[in-house]
């Protein structure tokens, strides 16, 4: 009986460790989680040679993060696929990892406290022109007491499993050498059918962002509604930091529309603007489109 009980507890610890690790999902820095990362995009261009990345632990306990690089491929829906080996790289996919150094490689961050990571560019003199990209991954490690929190009064045939989510956040690191440029278009905007007699809060507009050139594009996608009767445009939707990463030619974006009370999303024009990422109204518009609403 004692041997069976010990075996059950060992299985419980193994199950706890397994489920804790399986819950780790690499996530975009724009997504929710207990780890804040700033900036959410690193670009080495021109004379830029060094950047500091700040981590903020938004959880209630100290957490340890291991820092590494991974190569990801963006899909037409904006999701990411892991490129497992260098042999899996496509001809236009150039990793930035060999060009970048960083320190430290593992940190423990106290709740609410910042931690800086220094990222440095080490570019060879004969680097061929083009855009190079890898993703820096901040991966939370399992806590030291993982597997030790199973209740001690388990029966000999019982197995306890506790799910412990582990946060993973990745940000793109882009290196540009020589002449690089990109343009964007907003193509085929369409809005979900909305019953004007009900709330418009769940309405969404879908649009394809088409990229041309030899570099990535990144911007904020804004949606404004202009009533047919006139008046100032109303901002009804916004997605910040939306990228089409080279060599991906386009991606589909969906913007949730938040319409003020008393305003019906009909009988006007929906204006879409893909504006260079940042702050202020003077940022250049990379692409625009509009949709007439019945």
Description:
The protein is mainly beta and 294 residues long. The protein folds into two domains: 2-177, Immunoglobulins (Immunoglobulin-like, Sandwich), CATH 2.60.40.10; 182-293, Immunoglobulin-like (Sandwich). It is built from one helix and 19 strands. Strand 15 and strand 16 (234-244) form a beta hairpin. The radius of gyration is 24 Å and the shape is globular. The relative contact order is 0.18. The model is unreliable at 1-33 (pLDDT under 50).
Nearest-angstrom radius of gyration?
24 Å
Helix content: under 10%
Give the second-level CATH assignment, the architecture of the largest domain. Answer: Sandwich
- Average pLDDT works out at 83
| CA distance, first residue to last residue | 74 Å
Please write the CATH class name of the largest domain: Mainly Beta
Q: What shape does the CA trace take?
A: globular
Instruction: Write the H/E string, N to C.
Output: HEEEEEEEEEEEEEEEEEEE
CATH topology of the largest domain: Immunoglobulin-like
Please identify which CATH superfamily of the largest domain we are dealing with: Immunoglobulins
Strand content: over 45%
Number of strands: 19
The largest pleated sheet is described as:
6 strands, mixed
The overall number of domains is 2
What is the structural class? mainly beta
The parts where pLDDT drops under 50 for at least 5 residues are 1-33
Annotation field: number of helices: 1
């Amino acid at each position: 009986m004692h041997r069976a009980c010990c075996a059950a507890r060992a299985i419980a610890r193994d199950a706890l460790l397994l489920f804790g690790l399986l819950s780790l999902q690499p996530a975009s820095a724009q997504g929710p989680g207990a780890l804040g990362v700033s900036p959410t995009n690193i670009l080495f261009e021109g004379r830029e040679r060094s950047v500091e990345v700040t981590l903020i632990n938004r959880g209630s306990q100290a957490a340890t993060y291991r820092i590494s690089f991974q190569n990801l491929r963006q899909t037409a829906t904006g999701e990411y696929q892991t490129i497992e080996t260098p042999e899996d790289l496509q001809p236009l996919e150039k990793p930035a990892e060999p060009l970048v150094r960083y320190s430290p490689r593992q940190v423990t961050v106290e709740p609410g406290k910042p931690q800086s990571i220094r990222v440095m560019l080490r570019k060879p003199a004969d680097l061929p022109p083009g855009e190079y990209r890898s993703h820096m991954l901040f991966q939370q490690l399992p806590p030291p007491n993982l597997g030790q929190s199973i209740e001690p009064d388990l029966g000999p045939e019982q197995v306890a499993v506790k799910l412990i989510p582990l946060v993973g956040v990745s940000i793109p690191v882009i290196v540009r050498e020589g002449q690089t440029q990109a343009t964007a278009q907003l193509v085929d905007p369409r809005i979900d059918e909305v019953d004007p007699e009900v709330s418009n809060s769940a309405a969404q507009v879908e649009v394809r962002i088409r990229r041309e050139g030899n570099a990535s594009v990144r911007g904020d996608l804004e949606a404004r509604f202009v009533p047919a009767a006139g008046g100032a445009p109303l901002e009804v939707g916004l997605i910040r930091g939306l990228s089409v990463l080279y060599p991906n030619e386009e991606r589909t974006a969906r913007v949730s529309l938040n319409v003020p009370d008393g305003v019906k999303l009909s009988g006007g024009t929906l204006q879409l603007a893909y504006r260079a990422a940042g702050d202020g109204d003077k940022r250049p518009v990379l692409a625009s489109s509009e949709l007439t609403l019945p």
